[in-house]
Amino acid sequence: MSEGRWTYLSDMDGVLVREEHLVPRADEFLDELRSNEIDFLVLTNNSIYTPRDLRARLLRTGLDIPEESIWTSALATAKFLASQRPNGSAFVIGEAGLTTALHEVGYVLTERDPDYVVLGETRTYSFSAITRAIRLIEGGAKFIATNPDATGPSVEGSMPATGSVAALIERATGRSPYYVGKPNPLMMRSALRRLGAHSESTLMIGDRMDTDVHSGIEAGLQTILVLTGISNEESVESYPYRPTKVIGSVADLIGRTLDPFGEG
Questions:
Q1: Is the pLDDT at 219 greater than 60, yes or no?
Q2: Cβ of 147: how many Cβ atoms within 10 Å?
Q3: What are the UniProt keywords, alphabetically (predicted)?
Q4: 190 near 172, Cβ under 8 Å?
Q5: In the annotation, is 64 catalytic?
Q6: What's the confidence (pLDDT) of residue 5?
Q7: I need a surface site. Which of 36, 112, 235, 263 has the fewest CB within 10 A?
Q8: How much helix, strand and coil, in percent to the nearest 5, is found in the chain?
Q9: What is the C-alpha to C-alpha distance for residues 77 and 83, in angstroms, rounded to an integer?
């Protein structure tokens, strides 16, 4: 696997940062990608923030990642909808990351007869907005969700996320959403198109077997699982698929970014 030049896709939380703190030597890892002129994108299922917001948050941890190197489920959702129904309309439950992405592809946000109901992440899910979404879906709007994550982290502990609210709406309407974010390989493929890269020469670094590794494998990528986030070595054995490689953290790739699967 040492032939040619690799392109890197990397999850953000659990790989580069953990609970708003830098994963040790993640900054050195990214510096090496840049010095070796290796193309990369940082991916996140979180749809709350715009790439500009995320860049500012990452800078506070010590990571300098340009906006154009950040790819969110909100951006992937907007790209998907623009390809399905150009200049369409949507009723959105979400934050600026999602509404901005949809505006930028020419979508109109409306509560009146929208083409889609689009559910994303927010810290303040409104019962009235959820009720409105249910009624619009019952009226014929298609149901889209940015990602299936059931919970998200907070200082106090787990909090309900997109997947949990989507389940509520699905139970009320009998309509299942189409999830764009990981583990849907569509997220990986849209990232590849963003970079102009090919699956055969791209690897995905993630901390979760059920999203990062799953979607990477389905998109035809090589996969690296790091043990600085959700999954551990024991949990790997419970899945019917395996990552290409398991490492402690991205620090283990320093000095090896040109040949990440080489011996030694």
A1: yes
A2: 30
A3: Carbohydrate metabolism, Hydrolase, Magnesium, Metal-binding
A4: no
A5: no
A6: 86
A7: 263
A8: 40, 20, 40
A9: 10
CA-nearest of 220, 218, 216 to 231 is 216
Q: Which of 3, 34, 2, 6 is nearest to 221 (CA)?
A: 6
Q: Is 207 annotated as a binding residue?
A: yes
| Window from 18-22, 58-62, 118-122, 128-132 with minimum mean pLDDT | 18-22
- Establish whether 79 is an annotated binding residue: no
pLDDT of residue 20: 84
State which amino acid sits at residue 100: T
d(CA 191, CA 199): 10
- Give the other-Cβ count within 10 Å of 50's Cβ: 22
- The domains located in the chain, with CATH, are 1-8+44-201 (3.40.50.1000)
- Annotated ligand binding at 182? The verdict is yes
Among candidate residues 170, 181, 123, 174, the one with its CA nearest the CA of residue 148: 181
Cis peptide before 51 (omega within 30 of 0): no
Indicate the SS3 state at residue 167: helix
Among candidate residues 94, 95, 172, the one with its CA nearest the CA of residue 136: 172
The mean pLDDT of 163-184, rounded to a whole number, is 97
The span from the CA of 98 to the CA of 107, in Å, is 11
| pTM of full prediction above 0.90 | yes
Confidence of residue 169 (pLDDT cuts 50, 70, 90): very high
Mean pLDDT of 86-99: 98
Residue 183: cis peptide before it, omega within 30 degrees of 0? yes
Q: Is 212 a residue of the active site?
A: no
Q: What is the mean pLDDT of the chain?
A: 94
Contact in structure between 47 and 54 (CB atoms under 8 Å): no
Inter-axis angle of helices 96-104 and 73-84, nearest 10: 30
Tokens of 155: 């200082």
